[in-house]
Amino acid sequence: MAVYQATASAPVNIACIKYWGKRDTKLILPTNSSLSVTLDQDHLRSTTTSRADASFEKDRLWLNGTEEEIKEGGRMATCIAELKTLRKEVEAKDAHAPKLSTFHVHISSFNNFPTAAGLASSASGFAALVASLAQLYALPVTPSALSRIARQGSGSACRSLFGGFVAWEMGVKADGSDSFAVEVAPQSHWPEMHALICVVSDDKKGTSSTAGMQRTVQTSELLQHRIKHVVPARMDAIKKAITAKDFDTFATITMQDSNQFHAVALDTDPPIFYMNDVSRSIIALIVELNRASVAAGKGIKAAYTYDAGPNAVIYALQHNLREIVNLTMTYFPQSQAFNDPFSLYAKGQGV
Ligand code: 2P0
Q: What positions does the domain Mvd1 C-terminal occupy (predicted)?
């Protein structure tokens, strides 16, 4: 008897231009475009296996071995339903295609990065889920088309359908058909680029992104300024910087955008604080490192960015990485660091 099963994996991504705010909460349409660098590394991925079988009585999902409910009308159910609809189109065109759209699916997903990495798994998780079902259903679709579905699982997930430098273009249409991710450049375009993840705390964050960003949409005037007058120009400028491999500009925009994202969080009523004292000390360290480097005519060495939590991601070029890791470990001896695309630890180069 035929077995219908497929496995796919997707990487974690970290935004340099931040997504924060929805104009449509059901379709997950953002209030601004965003851009990420995907940590396309073996140890920062979600891997998902999907299986369709006539004997299955309902759709079921396991995350890291524990079964999770698939809520009716929820994000997971929406993604599965969208993919089944596309499978129906395949079956309608090909009379020999097995009627997989009529079977229930069992889905099992694992993250290979520790919870202690403090990384959100929803982006890589939804991207891997969508990719595995697309493979199972043999859907003739592009990664951008799949990103439109992953977006409805979690906004940032649409960016994890690609490796490298990825833009999520917000689109203007009400149905979301033009809100999807596109590749700006593959990782191989700028192989010297690395990301160092500094784990400040692995506590669960106090305010979820989903709830926090809508509070910001409702209460922050600064967000309106950001949406209209800041992000569009930054998207253009950072894409150009990536194309030109201009690290100084890339780093400057990345730090500015992290700062403004945390400023809009603070401008929310009641205010949202994601960074803590250690996060701010890391910023001070990077600012000082860059100040001294620029004064010596060597340009910017590192860019920090913070998501909806206290952990730092530091972007740097290969030749400056060792100095930055040494500096971080000297000032923050307790910290754990995960380095992309190849780990200093994994490679045994020491820190
Ligand atoms: C980002 N973040 O661009 C920004 C920066 C957090 C800070 O995307 O409600 O988990 O599932 O669409 O994608 C976090 O938001 O929110 C996020 P939902 P998501 O990476």
A: 195-351
Q: Where in the sequence of the chain do the CATH 3.30.230.10 domains occur?
A: 4-188
Q: Ligand 1 mean position to 308 CA, how many Å?
A: 8
The model's pTM: 0.93
User: Running DSSP on this structure, what letter comes out for residue 335?
Assistant: -
Q: Which helix H or strand E contains 183, and what residues bound it?
A: strand 180-185
Q: What spacing in Å lies between the alpha carbon of 34 and ligand 1's midpoint?
A: 10
Pairing of strands 104-111, 60-63: parallel
Ligand 1 centroid to residue 275 C-alpha, Å: 16
CA 85 / ligand 1 centre spacing (Å)? 26
What residue type is assigned to position 155 of the chain?
A: G
| Residue position matching structure tokens 């799949």 | 146
* Whole-angstrom distance, CA of residue 262 vs CA of residue 272: 8
ipTM of the complex as predicted? 0.99
Whether ligand 1 lies within 6 angstroms of the CB of 30 is answered as no
CATH 3.30.2350.10 fits 193-340, yes or no: no
For CATH 3.30.70.890, the residue range(s) in the chain are 193-340
Tell whether domain 4-188 is in CATH 3.90.1200.10: no
Compute the 3-state secondary structure of the chain and give helix, strand, coil in percent, each to the nearest 5: 40, 25, 35
> Which atom from ligand 1 is nearest to the alpha carbon of 157?
13
State whether the beta carbon of 29 lies less than 6 angstroms from ligand 1.
no
Instruction: Answer whether 34's CB lies under 8 Å from 165's CB.
Output: no
Give per-residue pLDDT as tens, 176-219: 999 999 999 999 999 999 998 888 877 766 789 999 999 999 99
- Of the residues 156, 165, 215, 307, which should be mutated to test ligand 1's pocket, given the most ligand atoms within 8 Å of the CB? 156
Structure tokens at 325: 């890791």
CA gap 254, 300 in Å, rounded: 12
